[in-house]
Write a structure and sequence with these properties.
Length: 398
Amino acid sequence: MLLDRFIRYIKIDTQSDEDSLSTPSSLKQYDLLNLLKQELGELGVKTTLDKYGRLYAKVEGNPAYSNIGLCSHVDTALECSGKDVKPQIIKNYDLSDIKLGSSGLVLSPKEFAKLNELKGKTIITTDGTTLLGGDDKAGVAIIMTILENYLKIDKTKRRGFSILFTPDEEIGRGPEHFDPKQYGCEFAYTIDGDDPKYIEIENFNAKAIEIEIKGKSIHPGSAKGVMINASLVLADFMNSLPKDMIPAKTEKREGFNHVVSIEGNVEVAKAHYILRNHDSSILDKQVNDFKNIKNELFKKYPGCEISLQITDQYKNMKEIIDKNPEVKNHIEKVYQRLGYQFEYNPIRGGTDGATFSFKGVPCPNLGTGSYNHHGRYEFAVLEEMEKMVEIGLEIFKL
Ligand SMILES: [Zn+2]
């Protein structure tokens, strides 16, 4: 049963570890990977768990058609513990405030509007002490349930099914060591979003910029006309950037420059920025803003050194999806056949699917029916997870 499966998976602590250099970043992710391997084996499905903690499985369908893949990640976010998750199951939800255990936290439809849509549904919440792990164990449980149902379909009436469970998505290392040959599908979908009505084929283009300013230090008592305070030059730099292009003032397809950290003294000052935009030509303009400000400040403060280190992080998968229209057409047809509405929703972040797409497996993202990820207010909706099982199964039917 989907619910039992989900509860079984979220009770396993699989938090990834940002500070680790090993792959997977934390060994406890194997606790779930090994269980999945065993459960796949019990269903008669052969698996490959590679030395980097990527679990692949393939099931044959009608050989006249290429395989389609589904993918979820087994790790949970860093912001909140995923150890000793004690879920609360609320059946026949009546739109009232939900107390999260004895933590004093309340999950309220006044604060989280989604809850207003969920009258009569079954909601799974935390007890207010951990995250839930619906991101992305809802996806994992959905894929395993799809597979159970898929195996009952006659081979000639289904497309081949490639499964991938990855570790370390939350620390941006999910697609490391990704092997498209091992995955063996023409295209795939990650099940790692929230609302089932959203199909996500766009993510940010992402760059990082490290600003480093070297000033000239001298005793402040005799500094007139000589001192260049690197920290003040950095403040000038930051104030010269577009004021409204920041995360707190942007939404939907609006990009931003986000200062992640700064440090500085008189001699040296540094700022770490991340730049995001769905449109790569606008992202290039954002980079040019940094270069232009650098040149201006260089003239304004003769003798100071300003350097910019620009790094490419990830790219918008839409570029690849647009070249492979079948990926979009296929999922649109699935929603239409089932009579479900859908919307295209641009992801304001990255996705493992973006890297898979650029490595040869175009890979949009679909919903999980779980919400408020990465924190203690996380919850999942059983009926929406079931809907994703229905949608996922339809993907393979001929
Ligand atoms: Zn996720």
